[in-house]
Design goal:
Elements lengths: L15 H7 L13 H24 L2 H22 L7 H8 L9 H11 L19 H6 L2 H9 L3 H6 L1 H14 L1 H5 L1 H25 L3 H17 L17 E2 L3 H6 L6 H6 L8 H7 L1 H7 L4 E2 L2 H7 L12 H10 L1
Helix pairs in contact: 2-3, 3-4, 3-12
Length: 331
């Protein structure tokens, strides 16, 4: 469990997201009786995954492989919904729908623990506190060798986020897997045994039924992870006030659907129990308040943003949140 640490009080406008979060932390307030859109989404994603494999079995080639990659990235967005208590109030039932390693790399339970720890807004972007931070402390970044610094800078581009960030994520994940402490903890050991067992069965079944090589499925999962990671390229930024660290991206329909409206990220952090299909209405009902609450951290869509930063870093890997916070306290 991460240690709790409070930041200085800020004006009411800057505390908007915190106030909204306080008003809507219970999942019961965000559930409809059936949550049929999420049930339909589960059925659709699994059906499309099967369809992608059937397509590959019929003709092979790049097109069905790319389709499989996009569907697997969409499945990761579904896992995010399951983590946040949808479509049922039963965490056990929700877990069943996200347990299969369709996107290969992350065990569902490890993602669940990591992502819920990320929802400590006062710790956002802190490298040793926020498990989803994209940043390093500046001294640690400066201490890296030149090749590693170049890769870390490249990760701050859209192309690097797609192609390089999955490698960092997987290496970090496998380093944890190799730690003796992982296997001494019964729950964590069981998580990995279950994940690797299911993954082995999945890879065997896919190869036996479609002829897809194991390496091709693993590579699809790699780029599915990269596609999912592109959403968070500039999802959070260093800032003095926690609410100012969370973006709103007014994305087009394709990206909104792929990321299940998590592009309205400030809304998600303010109301984490709100179902994906209810987020746009909540945002548009209070658009100006949300934008003001983030300090104007607004991006008008992914397409132009990704093109602008295809090769140009969006910012530096060394983050300055701690320095900004100390300046705010002393100022």
């Amino acid at each position: 469990m991460l240690a709790s640490r409070r930041v200085n009080a800020v004006p009411a406008a800057a505390n908007l997201l915190t106030d909204m979060l306080r008003d809507s932390t219970t999942s019961s307030a965000s559930h409809t009786p059936t949550e049929w859109p999420t049930w339909a989404l589960i059925a659709l994603i699994y059906s499309l995954w099967i369809a992608a494999l059937a397509w590959y079995a019929v003709q092979g080639g790049l097109a069905p492989w790319l389709f499989l990659t996009v569907v697997s990235a969409w499945y990761m967005s579904l896992q995010h919904e399951l983590v946040h208590g949808h479509p049922t109030r039963s965490a056990r039932i929700n877990r069943w729908f996200g347990l299969m390693p369709l996107a290969v790399w992350y065990p569902f339970d490890i993602y669940l623990d990591s992502h819920l720890a990320h929802h400590r807004d006062e710790l956002l972007t802190f490298p040793d506190k926020d498990p989803e931070s994209n940043y390093m402390d500046p001294p640690d970044f400066a201490a890296c060798g030149a090749p590693l610094r170049a890769l870390l800078v490249a990760q701050r581009t859209a192309l690097g986020r797609l192609c390089i960030t999955p490698a960092f994520a997987i290496v970090n994940l496998l380093q944890g897997l190799a730690q003796p402490a992982t296997w001494r903890a019964a729950s964590r050991a069981w998580t990995w045994i279950q994940h690797l067992g299911l993954l082995g069965l999945l890879l065997w079944g896919v190869h036996a039924s479609t002829g897809m090589p194991v390496w091709a499925y693993l590579l699809s999962g790699y780029f599915a992870l990269g596609l999912a990671c592109m959403r968070s390229l500039y999802e959070h930024r260093p800032a003095t006030r926690p609410a100012h660290r969370i973006v709103i991206n007014e994305a087009g329909w394709f990206w909104r659907l792929l990321y299940l409206n998590n592009n309205y990220h400030a809304v998600h952090h303010a109301r984490p129990a709100l179902a994906w299909y209810a987020i746009p209405a909540a945002y548009h009902a209070e658009r100006e308040r949300f934008i003001n609450g983030t300090g104007g951290f607004l991006i008008p869509g992914y397409n132009r943003f990704f093109l602008r930063h295809l090769f140009t870093p969006v910012d530096a890997p060394g983050q300055a949140t701690r320095q900004l916070e100390r300046q705010d306290r002393t100022g």
